[in-house]
Amino acid sequence: MKTVRSSEPIHQLTEKSPARTVWALALPTMIASLVQTANSFLDRIFVGQLGSEALAAVGVGSQLVFLCMALSMAISTGTTAIVARMYGANDQASLRESARQSLGLAVALGLLFTLLGYLLLPFLLRWYGLEAGAEREAYRFLSPALMGLTGTFLMMGLSGTFRGMGDTRSPMFASIVATVVHIVGDWVLIFGRLGFPALGVQGAGIALALSMWAGTLMLWGQQWFGRHRDLAIPALPLWGWWWRILRIGLPASARSFIYTTSSVMFTRILAGTAAGTAAVAALPIGLTAESVAFMPGFAFAIAASALVGQALGARNERLAERFGWGSAWQACGVMTVMAVVFYLFAEHFARMFSQDPQVIALAVAYLRINAITEPLLAFGMVLAGALQGAGDSLKAMMATFLTQWVVRVPLAYLLVYTAGWDAVGAWWAMALSSGFSGLLMIALFKQGGWKKVKV
Questions:
Q1: Closest Cα to residue 138, out of 190, 60, 208, 69?
Q2: What are the residue ranges of helices labelled H in 192-276?
Q3: In sequence order, what are the residues at sequence separation of 6 or more whose Cβ sits closer than 8 angstroms to the Cβ of residue 179?
Q4: Lowest CB count within 10 Å: 38, 98, 102, 161, which one?
Q5: What local confidence, expressed as pLDDT, does residue 11 receive?
């Protein structure tokens, strides 16, 4: 079998500069994230032209879609950790089996959660406590968007395999294709271009689903027509392998699930403020603009995950540690620069998405307050990725639980309602909890227990 030549990357890991190796893996992911950020910008701009109700509806609807996507992280993270370890150890048979089993697992879970999504959708939207118009628009957005979930699960499984082998370019190209489909789909279906009817937020949901499947097909095609065709065929279930993937991946999925569900609670707190819909509408604007800073953090976390796993597979713990710290410091430098940018140009960002003075003011406050703890957030994001790549995803999950549910949500409630800071209190809760996350992850990585985890 010649689809995996793992002796080459291990040679590079031991002899090339770790900083250069980190950058080489992070850059394609950063480019993909930049494209996705542009996608989010345009998506919010398109939807923002439909009014505050539509903007709030898509913000809430996107949270629920990402809640389902968070569940797919179980496949992506588990696959990356196992493939990276086997790639570093030159265990080609186990690499092949893990890649194929991850695809079979992706199909099964994707279909299951699509069904659950449709069954639970009316109850979830009522739970948010949105105004009637915003709730109706959220339902119109989500009904078609959920059709893309199975594609998302498959894309996560495929991406996990590529990244575990140190290939971040293939997921980058798939992400670019998905983004182009999403942007064009938004432009055509929201406003009724090229002979299509103007569907409003429903068109945004259709475009999102189409983009998920487009990215999946692109990634699968790169595998099938490339050097790894034997990894592109889903295998019949082997429960031992499924559990092996999920044992590592479920805590990572739970981490994303914890983050997303806490965001749902955070949004509900915002909905009860004096600003109400304006505060809920300002949140996705702030998150979209702040994603300029999230972009390098996510990219370096992906690089750290793959490189730490490969180095541990090669039984080089010292190099694995260097990859973890090196990735975190590079992310910190880039994210600090980005934080300064959106602090200085916060109002310009906000005005790109809304003309409502109240929404603009709240979005500006969000960006400037959260810029303060952006450097620590970089360490939190990247070192969590390093732990997951080592297979120690349980610690990353517990850190996220403490950050979101023990610190962020209660602190937001206290600052918003008890201290009377209203929506600005919620922004401070976000910033302080992000700083706490960074400090906690630094302590966990320094402790070093992740070096002994078996995958």
A1: 60
A2: 201-224, 239-271
A3: 35, 36, 38, 39, 211
A4: 38
A5: 41
Model pLDDT for residues 108-136, shown as the tens digit of each residue: 999 998 898 888 888 877 777 667 777 78
* C-alpha distances out from residue 207 to 147, 148, 213, Å: 11, 10, 10
- How many H-runs (helices) and E-runs (strands) does the chain carry? 17, 0
Tokens 């569940």 identify what position? 71
Q: Cα separation of 411 and 391, whole Å?
A: 31
Q: Return all residues near 198 (Cβ < 8 A) that are at least 6 apart.
A: 190, 191, 192
C-alpha dihedral, 20 to 435 to 62 to 291, nearest 10°: -40
Sign of the CA dihedral 291, 297, 303, 309?
negative
Query: What's the token pair of residue 246?
Result: 């999920």
Question: pLDDT tens across 46-68, in order?
Answer: 877 777 777 777 777 777 777 77
355, 334, 262: which is closest to 292 by C-alpha?
A: 334
